[in-house]
């Protein structure tokens, strides 16, 4: 009977998500100037609802020694598609996403209305424009989330980071907030080559271990570095250390 209770709970969560998604889509039809003040709050709720629908046990571990800043540039490793809703379920951030997300059915409209920034990864002009947009958004007071690996690179941290979040931090003086994600069922959550989003959602939903651990560490202050490049190298070394600690 335990399995029946589990799936009834999941069914209710998906019904809640469906109703909230409809509400989000209706709000997204309104002029952006009407909804920009409150839509991010509803987006945060929608992401938390999505986490419940996927039956993920999302845990936040505060590994930082000092209180977190109110204003930050959040970075995280990117092993799965789950963090696209997992991170904004925990943090009030605007994300940078690949341009293809903008055209995703339903999710794309919600992402646009939530203030997501988009980049065409293959285009140098698009990357340059996205970099300036990130700086402008941070200067305007928003928190942003960027995955410095430049996309889903698997459960292991990529051998190098891209400059985007560190340039945004260094140019604005806003600290980097580093987050390390660890999925206990790594293979179930990891985004594999050629895997469809619906396939990945099903694998997450049916995983025998649904624990997702989100470790938050001390901010990286840009005033302690001579350049954005130095910040980037420092952050990458930290992530390699955390990988050794958590990815056994």
Automatic annotation (TrEMBL):
Subcellular locations according to the entry: Membrane
Main location: membrane
GO molecular-function term, one example from the UniProt record: acyltransferase activity
The keyword Signal is annotated on this UniProt entry: no
Entry's transmembrane regions: 7-30
Protein name (Swiss-Prot/TrEMBL): Lysophospholipid acyltransferase family protein
Key words, A-Z: Acyltransferase, Lipid metabolism, Membrane, Transferase, Transmembrane, Transmembrane helix
Pfam families attached to this UniProt entry: Acyltransferase (PF01553)
Presence of the UniProt keyword Transferase in the record: yes
Domain of life: Bacteria
Residue ranges annotated for the Phospholipid/glycerol acyltransferase domain, each copy included: 72-184
InterPro entries in the record: Plipid/glycerol_acylTrfase
